């Protein structure tokens, strides 16, 4: 089955198996930020944005992505400069081993686009599906509050 996928603004014409998952196609195309971990929609490591909304690519058929804009972490840096979400995670110690970070970054990006001044409770709810074995989540939550503050938003801690 042949389809066209728009990934990070670039159109890819790709041959897939009808039952192939988006995660596998993205990795085959070289988008290595998309990580396989639980393979059962439990950890959020495979999160990508589809039309700006977080989805789990390990349980999304690749064919379902046709006609939609897919965004991975590779789209965020410009000229080698990290996105402010990535910088904030580094500043607060939220990156640790880094394995789960692409999912956190994209989920945070979607949250802040929908709600530029989230409360701590709203951040916790948004990041609920992203598992981290290193940090205990406090540093990721601080990173999101830090971004809100840096962007000139009001922070309710």
How many strand units? 5
Task: List the total number of helices.
Answer: 5
Q: Give the % helix.
A: 25-40%
Span between termini: 50 Å
Fraction in beta strands: 5-15%
Class by alpha and beta content: alpha+beta
Overall description:
This protein is α+β, with helices and mostly antiparallel strands. The chain folds into two domains: 2-75, Roll (Ubiquitin-like (UB roll)), CATH 3.10.20; 84-151, [2Fe-2S]-binding domain (DNA polymerase, domain 1, Orthogonal Bundle). The chain has five helices and five strands. The protein has helices at 22-28, 84-91, 101-114, 120-126, 138-150; strands at residues 2-7, 10-15, 47-50, 53-56, 69-71. A five-stranded mixed beta sheet has the order 2-1-5-3-4, with helices on one face. Helix 2 packs across helix 5 (138-150). The longest helix has 14 residues, at 101-114. The radius of gyration is 16 Å and the shape is globular. The termini are far apart. The mean pLDDT is 94.
Structure keywords:
alpha+beta; Ubiquitin-like (UB roll); DNA polymerase, domain 1; 2 domains; globular
List the helices and strands and how they pair.
Layout (H helix, E strand, L loop, with lengths): L1 E6 L2 E6 L6 H7 L18 E4 L2 E4 L12 E3 L12 H8 L9 H14 L5 H7 L11 H13 L7
Parallel strand pairs: 1-5
Antiparallel strand pairs: 1-2, 3-4, 3-5
Helix pairs in contact: 2-5
């Amino acid at each position: 089955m042949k389809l066209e996928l728009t990934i990070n603004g670039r159109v890819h014409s790709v041959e897939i198996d009808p039952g192939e998952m988006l995660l596998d196609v993205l990795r085959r195309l070289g988008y290595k930020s998309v990580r396989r971990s639980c393979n059962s929609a439990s950890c959020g490591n495979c999160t990508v944005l589809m039309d700006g909304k977080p989805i789990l690519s390990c349980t999304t058929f690749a064919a379902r992505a046709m006609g939609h804009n897919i965004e991975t972490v590779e789209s965020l840096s410009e000229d080698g400069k990290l996105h402010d979400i990535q910088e904030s995670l580094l500043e607060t110690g939220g990156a640790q081993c880094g394995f789960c970070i692409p999912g956190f970054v994209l989920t945070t990006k979607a949250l802040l686009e929908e709600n530029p001044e989230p409360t701590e409770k709203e951040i916790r709810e948004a990041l609920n599906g992203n598992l981290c074995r290193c940090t205990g989540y406090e540093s990721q939550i601080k990173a999101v509050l830090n971004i809100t503050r840096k962007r000139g938003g009001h922070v309710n801690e």
